[in-house]
Amino acid sequence: MIRMEQRTFGRTGRDVSVVGQGTWQLGGDWGEVREADAFGVLDAAVASGVTFFDTADVYGDGRSEQLIGRYLKDRPDADVLVATKMGRRVDQLPENYVLDNFRAWNDRSRANLGVDTLDLVQLHCPPTAVYSSDAVYDALDTLVAEQRIAAYGVSVETCAEALTAIARPGVSSVQIILNPFRLKPLDEVLPAAAEAGVGIIARVPLASGLLSGKYTADTVFAPEDHRTYNRHGEAFDQGETFSGIDYATGVAAAAEFAGFTPEGATPAGTALRWIIQQPGVTSVIPGARSVDQARSNAEAAALPPLPQSTLDAVRDLYDRRIRAEVHPRW
User: Fold this and answer.
1) 207 — phi, psi (to 5°)?
2) Could you report the per-residue pLDDT of 148-174, keeping only the tens digit for each?
3) What is the residue-wise DSSP string for 78-112?
4) Rounded to an integer, what distance in angstroms lies between the CA atom of residue 241 and that of residue 246?
5) pTM confidence score
């Protein structure tokens, strides 16, 4: 197994790898993934030094959690912190975020993952009002007291939601979209999290694959792939697909970004390296559907830091091509 850089994961006190493994793809929401292939991805990630898996009860309606649970049962030597999420399997109403529902959702995730205590549970981009509810945090504290969960965090869509959660003393982590096409979290969220000791999980790090440089204006995705059916937020928040950017704009910007790639690296690795070196980031969670993708993602942790000239070029690209396309609330 390769040793990867570890960072303290917020208020949990545990260390996790700077590159984690996102497992949305393994649920089947990006197209069908066979069980053997899913186990191959997880095994390649662990062998590459990954010690952090991120999943959710809604990924494949629990399939992602179940696969992780079965994999880790057969790998008791793998020291992996598993973060899951809850809340997206019901109507998105603040009144659904109550203790009884939390316990029911929690029981399902514990069964899926085959554990008594979940390492970390995150509210999965709930209605904005939920982040300000004292009763919600009291309920989460109760889950910790009952040893159902060891810690809790939030996954957010907006910087304002992140800042609201960071102010709560029990929040261990915030998961937020961060990549070279989404820079707003750098302004306030990352500094606030660092000051409060809250971990930052960077999701959608490759803008749903755009930053890999592999897609063109003519690329066709499978009908069951969210990159087909959610381009304009038809099924869930548009920011989760291509970082909320118009596809054609994203393809053009990705082609320019590819020109920043250092010798011996890939555009995807360069994007991940950019995220890793942002102050305040704990772990970045690229997804993978193949062993090669999992290994390549992990290799980004070993790349040398990008020079200031590249950081400046990323900012310039964002200002010229991306910022005007991003929805004002982001």
Assistant:
1) 50, 50
2) 999 999 999 999 999 999 999 999 999
3) ---EEEEEESTTS---GGG-SHHHHHHHHHHHHHH
4) 10
5) 0.94
